[in-house]
Amino acid sequence: MQIQGRAWKFGDDVDTDLIIPGHYLTTHDPAELAKHCMEGADPTFAGKVQKGDVIVAGDNFGCGSSREHAPLALKGCGVAAVIAGSFARIFFRNAINIGLLVYECPEAYQNTNPGDVIAIDPERGVIKNVTTGAEFKAATYPPLVAGIIQAGGLVPYVRAKLGASSAAE
Q1: Whether the predicted pLDDT of 124 surpasses 60
Q2: What is the pLDDT of residues 132-153, one digit of tens each?
Q3: Beta bridge partner(s), residue 87
Q4: Residue 165's CB: how many other CB atoms inside 10 A?
Q5: What's the structural domain count of the chain?
Q6: 8 Å CB contact between 100 and 152
Q7: DSSP character at residue 102
């Protein structure tokens, strides 16, 4: 499964309040959260982002609170992956838990401009800036984590595993 989309570029320390402002946390509905995604950083984002687009950001993406709403809002508005120099640990884990691809790759951030087309090969950990031709390597996911993402998140993964084990009995 290869991903390809337009890059949205943000800087360092994009916190969860910039991703989804706190006053929208009254819902867990991804479609509703998507309407306000990145509102604190770019008020036009939610109206312009397209399914499959990629966020490319600097260091410490997703810092702030431990709210799962932030990666849920990103996934809800169609963001296929987030590439950053580094992530806040809880954001990284929350992203995995809801099935959102996240990659640490400072070189991709440094060599991407807003609007560049980015292609990602998750199985090989290759990130390519299609616009410039530059390629970057990110770590691949261990099989368990890859399975969680492919299932669409931790809950669907566990449901599938429990269903599979129930069917085997």
Answers
A1: yes
A2: 999 999 999 999 999 999 999 9
A3: 61
A4: 9
A5: 1
A6: no
A7: E
Q: Residue 36 corresponds to which tokens in the numbers above?
A: 């306000």
Rounded to an integer, what distance in angstroms lies between the CA atom of residue 153 and that of residue 6? 23
Helix (H, G, I), strand (E, B) or coil at 118: strand
Q: Residue 167's pLDDT band (boundaries 50, 70, 90)?
A: low
Sign of the CA dihedral 89, 138, 71, 109?
Answer: positive
pLDDT mean over 47-58: 98
Owning domain of residue 10: 3-168
Dig out the tokens for 65 from the structure: 């609170």
> How many helices (DSSP H) and strands (DSSP E) are in the chain?
8, 7
- At residue 155 the predicted structure's pLDDT band, cuts being 50, 70 and 90, is very high
Given this model, what pLDDT does residue 169 score?
52
Amino acid at 95: A
Give this prediction's pTM.
0.93
What whole-number distance in Å separates Cα of residue 80 and Cα of residue 54?
Answer: 6
**CATH number, domain with residue 137:** 3.20.19.10
Q: How far apart are CA 1 and CA 126, in angstroms?
A: 12
d(CA 150, CA 46) in angstroms, rounded, equals 25
